Amino acid sequence: MRGTSISRRVLILTVCILFVLVAFSTFIAYVFYSDALVFKYEPGELDYARKSFFVILITAEVMVAIVLAVIASLYIDYLITKPVRSLTTVIDILSTEEDDKGSLQELMIKSGDEVEELYRSIVKYKEVTDERIRNAESDNWIEQHDYMTMLDNNELYDRRVKEYYPQMKHIFVACLKVLNAETLKEKLGAEAEECMLQKVAREMRRLASETAHAYRLDGDNFVLIFTEYNEKESRSLMDEWIARVGRLNREGDSFECRLVWGGAYAENDFKTADVRYRALAELERNIKGA
What we know:
Layout: H1 6-38, H2 43-95, H3 101-106, H4 114-137, H5 154-163, E1 170-179, H6 181-188, H7 190-207, E2 212-218, E3 221-226, H8 231-245, E4 258-267, H9 272-289
Antiparallel strand pairs: 1-3, 1-4, 2-3
Helix pairs in contact: 1-2, 2-4, 6-7
């Protein structure tokens, strides 16, 4: 939840300073000036009383102003100066070739305002930039990714099936297909189908991680493979994700395009091809029941 903005906090602080100053001045004036009027002084004494009153009043206001200035200085230092200095340090760390995640964790800004938003944006930008640099530096990145969706392709899938997945303790394979994709293509054209597939790919990229691999093998056939979760966790994650993706075409269309999926789980001694075959079988059953 976003906290109160800096500008609003400064405004509140200013109003409070003025309120305290006016209240204190009114109180002092009421006490001392009322007393000065009550007593019967000779002309010389009355002038002295009035001068004393104004000296006390001005002194009190100056003292209050100094105290409030110190408090405001500390408040602004906590809200602005310290976060900005920490942000500068964060930028220096992120500018290096190697990220110091421990230092970033220590310097994480949690002020709940625009400074925190800027901090998170810079960190996110660094992560995205690093990913793009790594992809650009990889000679075979293009060969291992689908050109249209930027998802992993058949070549990378086959390599992981041979070299990576056999080392895992367990695996969950989810096969996905877009319901009514052909209908969309027939009625609205190939461009509309391509936009829909890119939307699916965008959502899959958000889900992908080091332990969740997203593939487009051909057409509207997609595969997600999880190596970290058990079967119950994987199915729960898939259900929540599918619900979040929701309808893929316009509400006004006479047909609905959405993702249908089937999954299979295996642990210990398994073959990824067999797990995918079982996932495809469940997918076919779900398509028929859709």
